[in-house]
Structures are given as C-alpha cells and as structure tokens.
Design goal:
Length: about 500
C-alpha cells in the first residue's frame, strides 16, 4: 500500500454522512428528531444525525424482508463477486474510512482499518459458494435423507462504537455471504460509518434493501429487536446492553449471537521471555484501551513482578496522547465524556479503598487536551483481584498488575471474573502451556502471544460466561447465519 496521506482539516467533515437508509430511500431528516455527535478529541460537535422512528424501523425491516427474497436467490458466485467488489471499494475508500474512524471514535488515523475489513469480506466471499449440506443414512428406514443450508433471514446487526467499520467485516460479511439481509443499528457514539457502508454496498451492486440503517437510542434498539420481521440478532457491545436486548428478543424466541465484554488476564510466568512479553503487555493504551480483548489484568509471578512493573511503566510513559490526525501521536481519546468520568472514578475509588496503588497516571489529561476525552495511561499495582477495578471492563487505558506465586493461583485469579473472552499466558514450559489451555476459562487462549491485535477472519472469535456466545470468524462465523433444513425422500 502507498504511504498514508492524512486528509486536510477542512476536508474531514465532508466524510461524515448522517442519515437513515430505508431500502432505496435515503432519509436526511426524521420526525424522530436528531442527536448530536461529539468529536472525542475536541469535545466539539461533529454533526447532528437523525433518529429513526418506530415507523421507520418498520420500513427498514419491511425493505429487508423484500430484499431477502431477492438476495437469497442470487447464485452463490454472484454474491461472492459482489462482496469482492465491496472489498475493493473499501480499499479504494481507505482515506475516507480512516478519517471517519478518527472523527467518530478518536482512533489514531490509519488506513489499515479499511484493508483489514476488506480482508473479512474477501474471506467470507470465498465461503459464499462453498456452503453444503450432508447426505444421511436414515436407518432404520429406507430412503434418501440430506440437509440443505439456508440463510436465517433478516438480521438485526448492532455494531460497537470502538470501530464500527471493522464490525461490518466480522458480523456483516458472513451474514451477507450466507444470503441474509441486514437492518443495522449504529452506535449513537459512532453513527456515520454505517451510512457510508450502505452506500458502498450499493456501489458494489448489492440490491437496495439488503443493507438498511436505522440510527438512534435505546428506543430504536428495542423496537428493532422486538420486531417480528427480524429473524436473528447479532450484537457487539457491553454485557449490560446485551442482557437488555436478550430480554427483548426472548418475547419472540429470537436467536442471538453476542460478542460482549472482557477483562482478560495476561499471565507471565517466571520462565517467560520478558523481552518479548512486556512490550505487548504495555500495549494497553492501544485505541486508548478500548478493545474487548485487551489483556487488562497483568498477572506476574513474584520473581519478575518488580521488573515487569518498571518496564511496563517505562514503555507506557512514552505514549504520546493527542489529535488522532497528528503524526507521532500514539494514543487518542476515549469515546465520551461519560467514559472519562467512569474510568477516572473507578481508579479513584480503587486508590481510596486500598484496592490498588497508582504507579502511573490515574487522571484526566489537561492542558491543550482538556476539552477532549483523554485519560492518562494508568498503571495500577498490587491490585485486589476481587475489587471493582479488576472486575469491571473499563474500556480505557488502565492496566491492573497482580502478583501470583504458582500456576494454581494464576489460573484461579485469571478465572475469577464473570468474563471469559480471551486469556493470555507466557511460559517456556509446554507441559504447563497444555495444562493452561484446558484450565483457562475463555473463548480463546493465547500462549506466548505478543498481546492484543486484530482477529484473523479465519479464526473463530467469541467468549463464554458474560462475554457472550456464538462466534465471529472461520466457518463457525457463517454458520451463525445459516439454518439447516432436513429433507427426506421416501423412495
């Protein structure tokens, strides 16, 4: 890829397109009113965006149902070709995508998010023409028995605010490849990328109504999940919101796939290669800590404890916070003013209660960045694993460091949380590594991993316990959007 060229400040607002997409109809204003979106880096309004009414939710679902009967009958190779065109368009729009992401969520400007998401569409385009059933021997009867994969129907897709474009790849690509249609609920804190995505789908030749966009608050979410025309819900977000949506979906016995929160442990044993481990452990400031798979609890065997703290603090001290478009800046803001207050409040409570000691940071960044939503890289040590600071998903640049003595204690600490998304462990002892794979309670276990990073579209990603259920990525990801019909011929 060519060198990145950051768009000029005067050009950036033009990339933000507010609106609703209802079938072939674009709605710039709605009787539901509008909400304002604030730039996390400045605290100033980016743009206002329309809020869908219940009637507009109904219109979007109706459009998706009509389009489903068309899209599902496209031949698999035609759907594959359309998704490949969409991937190419996203790469072509990489400056636009990078700009939208930075303005929406404060992510450091980069064009990788476009190429990464395009990879997901290319991967699932490859699955579109490879979905098969199986032949069954229906003993003790005679006849021909087989299964036929079918798309589940209209999917309500909820994308999270810490990277909406990426979640279109993780959840939207497999649904579209399977032959489903989408009604997308963008996050209030990231409403613009979804509208652009719908436009790119049309450019790729995907029919109107296959992708619909209805923005707004909790009322829109509830109306969408409760709608009888929705066949399945795919949600990425907080566990608390996931519970509310699950309750609403239960009224119609509606299935869901839920990618929820995490409080992942990163276990460092005394025999680990610290030079390889600690740079990854210090990456808790990536995306200002706004990642569900971040290893936010660093569990270190006592022999290495003091050294690990000092090295992680040294690396984190070099983080440069600031405008996501400024070269050299390595950490942007968190998503909202409310997030700043929640994160710094929990840190203060931990300090005052004696649940942790603040070794680095702990507060809001002031000075020239005071109007934005910036939190200092924060290192908490001697943390009580049972305290709220160690049990709550902070979604901010805060790392809890906890000592342990032996393997059994490390596993007990790692598993002593309601979450179970990812677990990380570092050791040169492969017998121990094998034991950890069995004993760590998480949807993914990484041994000698360098830290959080993009999920491969070929790998199944998802959690257990309060981290949700279902998988994104791999064949399992597209299976979430298929229903298998059994056919028996009495011949």
């Amino acid at each position: 890829m060519t060198e990145q060229t950051v768009p000029a400040p005067e050009d950036r607002p033009g990339f933000l397109e507010p609106g609703l997409v209802l079938g072939d109809r674009f709605v710039a204003t709605s009787s539901g009113g509008e909400m304002e979106h604030y730039n996390p880096a400045t605290g100033r309004v980016n743009k206002a965006f329309p809020v869908a009414t219940v009637d507009e939710v109904d219109e979007a679902v109706s459009a998706a149902r009509v389009a489903f009967e068309v899209w599902r009958r496209w031949t698999p190779d035609a759907r594959r070709a359309a998704l490949l065109r969409l991937a190419d368009i996203m790469v072509e729009r990489r400056r636009e995508i990078g700009t939208i992401a930075a303005l929406e969520s404060g992510t450091i400007y980069n064009e990788f998010v476009a190429t990464y998401t395009a990879d997901w569409f290319r991967y699932y385009a490859g699955w579109a023409d490879k979905l098969t059933g199986e032949s069954i021997n229906p003993y003790p009867f005679r006849g021909l028995d087989f299964t036929v994969p079918e798309p589940v129907g209209v999917v309500a897709l909820f994308v999270a605010s810490n990277g909406p474009i990426g979640f279109f790849g993780m959840a939207g690509a497999p649904a579209l490849a399977a032959g489903c249609t989408l009604v997308v609920k963008p996050p209030e804190l990231g409403p613009f990328s979804s509208v652009s995505f719908a436009r790119w789908c049309l450019e790729a030749g995907i029919p109107p109504g296959v992708v619909n966009i209805v923005g707004g608050g909790p009322e829109v979410s509830q109306a969408l999940v409760r709608h009888p025309g929705i066949d399945k819900v795919s949600f990425t977000g907080s566990t608390e919101t996931g519970r509310r949506l699950q309750e609403a979906a239960a009224q119609n016995v509606k299935p869901l796939v839920m990618e929820l929160g995490g409080k992942s442990a990163n276990i460092v044993f005394a025999d680990a290669d610290l030079d390889a481990v600690l740079p990854g452990a210090a990456r808790f400031t990536n995306s200002a800590g706004q990642g569900c798979s971040m290893p936010t609890r660093l569990l270190v065997q006592r022999a290495l404890y003091d050294r690990a703290i000092e090295e992680v603090a040294r690396i984190a001290s070099g983080v440069v916070a600031g405008d996501p478009f400024t070269p050299g800046v390595t950490m942007g803001p968190v998503i909202s003013e409310g997030s700043v207050r929640r994160i710094t409040g929990l840190v203060s409570d931990a300090k005052e209660s004696g649940a942790a000691r603040v070794h680095l940071g702990g507060g809001r960044i002031g000075g020239e960045l005071a109007n934005g939503y910036f939190v200092e890289p924060t290192l908490l040590v001697d943390v009580d694993n049972a305290a709220p600071i160690a049990q709550t998903e902070l979604f901010g640049p805060v790392l809890c460091v906890i000592p342990f003595d032996d393997e059994d204690e490390a596993v007990a600490l790692a598993n002593a949380t309601s979450f179970g998304l990812v677990a990380y462990a570092h050791t040169q002892d492969m017998r121990r590594a094998r034991r950890l794979i069995d004993s760590l309670r998480a949807g993914s276990v990484h041994i000698n991993s360098s830290g959080p990073g993009p999920v491969s579209p070929a790998s199944p990603f998802g959690g257990v316990k309060d981290s949700g259920y279902g998988r994104q990525g791999s064949r399992l990801g597209i299976e979430e959007f298929l229903s298998y019909k059994n056919v028996y011929l009495n011949i």
